[in-house]
Structures are given as C-alpha cells and as structure tokens.
Amino acid sequence: MLIAGLLFQPDSKPRGLVPGWLLVQAATILDVGTGPPPARPDLGGDDCCIFPGFIDAHVHLPQFDSIGVAGLELLDWLEKVIFPAESRWEDPAFAADMAERATDELISFGTTAFAAYGTVHSESVRQAMTQVASRHVRALFGPSLMDRNAPPNLCYLADDQIEALSRFTTLDRVEPAVTPRFAVACSPDLMTQAAQLARARGWAIQTHLAETHAELALVSSLFAGRPYTQVYEDCGLLTPRTILAHGIHLDDAQRALLHQRGCTLAHCPTANRFLHAGAMDRAATLAGGVRLALGSDVAGGPDRSMVRVARAMIETAWSLGHEAPSARDCFHLITRGNAEALGWSNCGRLAPSFEADLVVIRPTITLDKHPDPLGALLHGWDDRWIQQTVVAGVVEYDIRWRA
Ligand SMILES: [Zn+2]
C-alpha cells in the first residue's frame, strides 16, 4: 500500500511536515521517501497530511456510555455514575460488545494504540480483550483490581483476582496490564500481589495517583498518613513500566521518587478540567525528571480525540501562567512520546521498520504559507478531516464508509 502526503516528521525543521510517501507491506512501514510518490498512491495525496496513529496513554473502555455526566467530584462520580456502569460488565457479552464499540470509536478519532482499564470482571475483560485484538490495535489492557471501598459486587478477593489475571496472555498486539484501580479501592495485600505478578511477567502496571484533595485525604486516612506515592512504593508498584494517571497534587519529594523509579505520569488535562480536579503542573513534573505521557481518561475526560487532549495540555499550561508546549511537542507526545512511555519501541513514527499505524487527514484549512502549520492543525483540528485510520497495515476506518 502506497500512501502520500505531508508526512509528520517532528525532527524536520522548521515546519515538521515534509512532502513524501510511505510504502506499507503487511503490518510494517517498509520504506519512506521524500518528494512525489513513485506511483499513484492508494491513500492520501497532495492535499493530505499523514501522522503516525495517535496513542492514548490512559482510557477506560467500560466508561464509554458514561461520557458527559458533569458536575460531580471524583469520588461522587465514581459512586453514582461509574460503578453502576461498570457493574454492567458482569455480563461478558455486554463487555465484549462495548469494548468493540469503544475500540472502533477510538480508531475513528485516529487512535491506533492505547493503555486501557477494564472492570473487575476478569472473564468479561478477557472477552473484551479478544474484541480489542480483533481490530489489531496495540494496547495494554487489564481488569481493574478492587477489593474494598467500592460496591460489594465490584470487590473480589485479592487471591482470586491475581489468580485470574495470571492466566491472561498477550493476544495479537494486546498485552495484559496489571491494573490496581487506585489505593482507595485496593488493600495493601492486593497491591503487593499485583506488583509481584507484574514483576514475574514483566507486565506494565497502571493506576491512578493524586487526582483530587478528597481522594488524598482518604488515602492518608487508610494508610496511616503515608504520602500517596509512598503507598505505591511500599507495595512495590513503582517500576519503569508503571503508568500513573493524573499526579496533580504531588510535592517535590514524591516527584523525586517517581523519577528514581523511572515511572511515567499520564497527564489527563481534559479529565482534570471536567471533574474540577485541579491543574497538573507539567513544568514541575518535567523539572523533577518524571516522564510524561498524555491520556484522554474517558469518561473522566469527555473527549476521545487525542489532538484535543493535547490542546488541553497547552491550555492547562496557559492557565498556570507557564510556558506551553508547542504544537510540534504535542503531536510528538501523542505519537512517539506516548509509545516510548508505554514501552513500545517500534511504534509511533513514520519510519522504515516501524509498525504501520497511521492517520490520513485532509485539512480544509490552507497550510501552504502558514507560519506554523502544525499549530494550525492542532488548534483548528476537525475530526471530519480524518480520511482513513490504518492499524497494523489494515484500513480500520475510512470516511467513505460513512457516505
Ligand atoms: Zn482514569
């Protein structure tokens, strides 16, 4: 398959977009060239831009039917909206159907890879995983582990959850992830066993950290006043493959610990705004040497588009009076940056031997003489520009299907 257009190449100065073409064979980018394509392209054209597929470092597949319930604080929202929604995943057929819908939805927004949470129901998550894998997306995915401070039907025994998770295996490009939901809903025993399993298998760990003040107070009361990050450290959960969502209310000592352990913070600016959780200090996080990823956190965040999530990262920095990342930084973060943070070495770049995940867009705004074409794309982004999303060399979304 030959694809042509303005290729996103973040290292190319000054514009970050280079006219060129890509040759895709099976699931891999075989060759990349600049200038006119060697033959008539199968996808794209002079008026198109080609980006690596977008990557979402934090998303909840069981929450796609709960998008947009506004006005509640995190713990209230979990109790009133999310836990009832997640209870529906007790039915594996419902879970599989919803995972398929959610994956297709993400692909239609240009997302080709993600780190996702399921629910506590391991059999349902296993069947959901099969649906996710059927779309060839690259993913980290696992059941949300919980054994306390949630409705009884969503709390399982720690031993049972770890035993069930230990039977998960990688399916196509979907890798199991050890996913203790957050310290409020997990006993020290559950978190310690989860960390041991992750270490034994080399699996990624994903959890939440320091999203709201009420959550912080609860963690402090549950863990004898230990700092939130230290609670995870005590259980062995902080590893170079650990992704912690939010990290809004942290001090420098906790950031230093995350840096020492090589962890990643998944910044979720649309969710932080939607649930009024606060503004994550990106500058302090980076100054502390903590690796940063970016996530939609659907349904805490209402937006599925990683481009708009990236735009919200800029707006959050502005709201704090800090220097904001450039549009180039944003597009790099939601492609190669997130790939590196999630441990995917051959994903997120338009380069030979990389996995063939990409988005073909046809912008309706003129980029020719624009002083910052990537800024024009980021701030003027319109999902209707997306022509095709290619996942592992397969066209999984095509705007013509909508005609
Ligand atoms: Zn989340």
Low-confidence runs = none
Strand content: 15-25%
Number of strands: 16
**CATH architecture field of the largest domain:** Alpha-Beta Barrel
The major pleated sheet works out as: 9 strands, parallel
Instruction: Please tell me how large the radius of gyration is.
Output: 21 Å
| Strand/helix succession | EEEEEHHEHEEHEHEHHEHEHHEHHEHEE
CATH class of the largest domain: Alpha Beta
Classify the fold: give the CATH topology of the largest domain.
TIM Barrel
> Which structural category fits the helices and strands?
alpha/beta
Tell me, rounded to a whole number, the average pLDDT.
Answer: 97
Q: Based on CA inertia axes, which overall geometry fits?
A: globular
Bound molecules: zinc ion
CATH homologous superfamily caption of the largest domain: Metal-dependent hydrolases
List the total number of helices: 13
Q: What is the straight-line distance between the termini?
A: 23 Å
Q: Tell me the count of domains.
A: 2
Q: Summarize the amount of helix as a percent range.
A: 25-40%
SSE diagram, text form:
Layout (H helix, E strand, L loop, with lengths): L1 E7 L8 E9 L2 E7 L8 E10 L1 E7 L13 H14 L4 H17 L2 E7 L4 H13 L3 E5 L1 E2 L12 H9 L7 E7 L7 H14 L2 E6 L3 H10 L5 H7 L7 E5 L5 H10 L2 E4 L1 H6 L7 H6 L3 E4 L11 H14 L7 H15 L16 E4 L11 H7 L6 E6 L2 E5 L5
Parallel strand pairs: 1-4, 5-6, 6-7, 7-9, 8-9, 9-10, 10-11, 11-12, 12-13
Antiparallel strand pairs: 1-2, 2-3, 4-14, 14-15, 15-16
The protein binds zinc ion (ZN).
